[in-house]
Input
Amino acid sequence: MSPAAHLLDTPHHDGSLRYLSQPHPRLGETVDLYVRVPHAASVTSLHVRTTHDAEPKFTAGVVDRHTASDTWWRVPLVVHNPVAHYRFLLQGGELGYQWLNGTGLHERDVPDAADFRITTYDPPPAWSDDAVVYQIFPDRFARSASADARPTPDWAEPVSWDTPVAGRGRRTGRQLYGGDLEGIAEHLDHIETLGATVVYLTPVFPSRSNHRYDATTFDRVDPILGGDEALTKLAAAVHARGMRILGDFTTNHTGAGHEWFRAAQADPAAPERDYYFFDGDRYVAWLDVKSLPKLNYDSAELIRRVFDDPQGVVRKWLTGPDGLDGWRIDVANMTGRYGAQDRYHDVARRMREAATTARPDALLVAEHCHDTSRDALGDGWHGVMNYAGFTRPLWTWLRHREYAPDFLGLPVIVPRLGGRAVMETMREFAAQMPWVTLTHSFNQVGSHDTTRVRTLVGDDAGQVDVAAGMLLTMPSIPMITYGDEIGMLGEFGEDGRRPMPWDAAPGRGGRGGTDPAAPGGEPPATTPGGAPPATTPAGEPPLWDERLHTVYRDLIAMRRASPALHAGGLRWVYADDDVLVYLREHPQQTALVHLARLAHDPVRLPAAALDGIESGCAAYGPGLVVDGDEIVLSAGGPHVGVWTWSPRAE
Output
């Protein structure tokens, strides 16, 4: 298609409830697959191609029903293998031969890599289906009065809450602001009223840094945070609000001060020696960072202590009514892999078994920054952090023209691309995993490891709204890093780990502010030499942007109330440089989403192809513009528009 053509005349299928009779089948069951084929496509026959035991097999489809704009085809699929790959062969029209797979329609033969996938593994916990996650870096979120009485560890440099962070350098990991778990509990109202349903804590185990990814033990909670009792009380308070809480576990490494590593160094005959990769006194460390020795899962005893022991790290902290509700797994993509060793999938499956034994509805989401096609089938982790398939393409669309963000070690600047490239990137990465894995992965605009979104867009202030709009209207679990909802700044990961400015919140007498660009308005002009932080009319950076806070609250509330937005499929409709349009389809509801990074020419869509859309159905943004038999989408600047309606009975 040309960039200016809509996709409503293109056949469509995805793994959602609108297109599958059973999203979580058992081995040997038959699932009915549905394909929406617009009449304009002139398809005369349709077959599904699957691979039973790696051998292609074709099954003919039949016409299930007709609507004003589409013919719906139905074809049965016997789920013969735990992961069933399939795509569709369409005949008819001018070409007479087309394949439909996860990346769209193709006029030529294509490999299996982007086939649709359905799996027979146990589904993720039901509570995660409509989750909204709020990520907290414990040292920087909130400090309780109890923190004043706790001794400062020898590695730390205590600083006041308003001290600037040491973004890079010797002091980076040593600055201790004193945020603690009791402080988080005291601010649960903020998280709950925002609309988040899950609190995700970066590590809470003792360590020799403020980030705590260099644990010295997994057996207790860091006393600086309040210890074991504080975590139990926080979990109880979270659960009392009907929310969930996730921990963060480094399966790939420990700290050099960890009790296991100290025992391994002290005695070559110690059982802990086999937990690591030693060659004499030399040992393997994560990315050669010597403070982070890498774990060796060739050790049966390590596997027992981590996964099988009821008092091991995975099970212990999930056990009981006030245990954690699951884990985010740090550096999961490297876990169990070193040279010729590859125990990654074994580790993922063992952790899934251990976690669900301790807590049957536990959720596991793995950090993964790259291609997940080999690593996210759903038999181990339920999902991944979708940096490659969501964060990076969103950045390429919305980053400021004169600002080049640092993306997790990428040696060149992140490009600024048009909407079509963003759509194609998202489709390609989404096609690499089963739908159930995609929809239980974390989408994030950024995290504690990346540039903050408010810095990413620079003085194009309204584009933060667009980023939040995409985050909260796309499939997958949205994850919001503390402070993004109020416009916190940060050039890169460590710089973004700033203390939450509670004193600047409305009603606290501090320095808040509002962005100079209202939703949908023109952003301020670019300043020469880069993209400075947004400023208040007084010329000072806002510490708490209440307008943006309201945007996040409203978008989250809309998502949680909408079955289409939290459980629907994804059907791309239109992509051009400055505009993206897509549908979220669910049996109960359809949502049309219009995102614009800049002003654009009107996009005209045939109303007949939009399955019952009517004027007056706005869920967010302006009302729908109808011109005769067309829907007209336009924007004068950064813009988010969402319209929801019930599909016609068919």
About this structure: The CA atoms of residues 420 and 575 lie 5 Å apart. The mean pLDDT is 92. DSSP finds 16 helices and 31 strands in the chain. The first helix runs from residue 138 to 141.
